[in-house]
Every structure is written in C-alpha cells, then in structure tokens.
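Summary for the lay section of the report: proteins are chains of building blocks that fold into shapes. Here we show the chain for 3'-5' exonuclease KapD and then a coded description of the shape we predicted for it.
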Amino acid sequence: MNDQPFLFLDFEFTMPENKRKPEGFFPEIIEVGMVAVHGGEVTDTFSSYVKPEKFPVLTERCKAFLNMKQEEIESGIGFAELVERLSAHGHAAVITWGNMDVKVLRQNCQAAGAAYPFRGKHRDLSLEYKRFFGDRNQTGLWKAIEAYGKKGTGKHHCALDDAWTTYNIFKLVEKDKEYLLKPAPTKIGDLVDFSKLMKKVSMH
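The coded shape description reads as follows.
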C-alpha cells in the first residue's frame, strides 16, 4: 500500500415502507462508519448515528432491516456535523463497496445546501473486485470476504463493521495484485544451459 491516504466509508440510509415512496422522498444517511488509513496504518475511526432531516421518522421496514431504534437515530449527530467530520479527510481517496454511498452523500449534500466534502478520487471496490476476479455479477461485501475464507468484521449492516470489512478486502485484493505483478524469481536453470555444461564436464 502506497503513501496515499485512504478513507474506507460506509453509510446506512433511510428507506420507504414500500415501493410507493412518499412525495419528495430520497434516502438520507442515518449511520456512518469510517476507517482512515495512511501509510498502511489506521489513523482514525469514527462511527455515529445521523439524524435525518427531511423524513425524521424511520419506517418500520427500515428499523427492522437495519435493526435500529428511533431513539438511537435521534441521539445521533446532525448532517452538518457529519459533513464537517468527513471534510477532515477531504484529500483522501475514498473507498466504498458499491457506488451508492457516494451517490447518496452527494444527494444529501445537495438537499442540505452543503459542499461535497471530498476532493480525492473515489474507488468502488466492488467493481475492482469484480474486474480482478472476472466475475459476471457484482458480489456482496460479506460474500466477497467469505470467498477469501475470512469472516466479515462484526455484523453486517453496521456501518463501522462494514467499513472495516471493506478495508480488510482491500488489503487482500491489493496483496493479490502485487503477487500477480511481481515477476517470478529467476531460477539457476534459466541462467545456465545445463546440457552444454554436462557435455563439457564429460569431455574432461
């Protein structure tokens, strides 16, 4: 891993009760998990619930799917504080599993009239994983780590645990890439023509 700072990021969002969305509904960030890495060392982690502003009451479907309570969300930070937190890592390369996290963040920033906090490039690790392994379909985060014979960190759909799992897959994929790019070590047989050498030896 080079000296580039990385930010492994995961969000959980609000969801409508069913396919008939309320007018003006859009997914709002309700939980953030991030792992900041620089020079191969974890330099910062952060996890918090985030209060939704446009639709502050969670649907039953959302609470059941994410195993969250309304009170937990109400104890969270505001969206402005979330943007401020993320801005501290504005120069890092942002790595997420899928592109939904960044899409929703942009949409939420637009709705709140806030500046998008990142200047570094975004990498969708699920796409890199798919290309690297030649998979036809994109793999889910936890399926991908299990394919490596490892387990996801903590529990699925907990933002910080998913951010850690993304970081762990990143390390595994980068290691595999390095292994493939490294030329095979030269064997002594590649340098010496043994058949000629043996002829010379037998002539003496």
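Put simply, here is one thing we learned. The first strand starts at residue 6 and ends at 13.
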